[in-house]
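Researcher: Go.
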Amino acid sequence: MTNSSVVTLERHIVEEERTRPEATGAFSNILYSITLAAKIISREVNKAGIVDLLGGTGDRNVQGERVQKLDLYAEDVIYRAMDHTGALCCMVSEESEDILPIPEKFPKGKYVLIFDPLDGSSNIDVNVSIGTIFSVHEKITDGVDGTVEDCLQAGCKQVAAGYVLYGSSTMLVYTSGRGVYGFTLDPSIGEFLLSHPNLVMPDPPGRMYSINEAYYPRWSPGQQRLMQHLKGLDGEGMVSYSSRYIGSLVADFHRTLLKGGIFMYPADSKSPRGKLRLLYEAAPMAMICEEAGGRASDGRTRILDLIPEAIHERTPLYVGSSEIVGLAEAFLASST
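Model: Structure:
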């Protein structure tokens, strides 16, 4: 048995806290609570088909997307796991139009939690991997209550970012700016165990790309030329890349993180500002990717340098191995 197999997430958090003299325990409390929420959501995802949690509610969220029953369940679980901790001043969820305040009866802290409770929820009914994405910022305004300004910070200001993947196993991957760590849930003991210490993207990178090619007619000329290049069809004699696409950001990014390559969700004629949300999809993945040695861009600008103007702002996303993201930027620049 390797040492990593007996390192629980809780032990890892405690050991990390000991290396930070300024630590108050508040940030650790956030991670503990996220872990609890992840275990509860994982349990319900695994039995959704037999407890009437599959399918939609009939409503649409602020994004105009159909709300799934598990979306609302996951949002409520995360909110209830976090609202009383005393570590947060407010929260932001994909499913809610405005910021989520902390109830008056609970103490407030100096952190903001921004999350997508269940990414890829349109895949729930067909049992495809889905996930939770989270981002943590420090409060920047005066006063006790959190404000929109506290939430609208550049990704480079994140204190931590991570995701939970609900697949053949449940994994939690996170970074607090000092490496990327992956933990796998052992359902027999109910603990996340360190399974992927110090994750680093492969070098040389895997020759894989992940994108929904059905949107090809909507893409810019530069994006179309990039795809021809990756397929080895541009006459340069290049060996083509392999295509891998699930349609769930967490699942597609997780594969890219472990195997290398690039995940792309470009702007197109229907969504000229992009489709993915900057605060709780692109920025958290960008922080994880950069900590693992990769890059993340909107096609021109580093994702972590973008300053959002709205909590549900969208962006194009190119994330993965540095070399391939740079290649994508070069092709996109050639179309302007």
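Model: Residues 208-333 form a domain with the D-Maltodextrin-Binding Protein; domain 2 fold (CATH 3.40.190.80).
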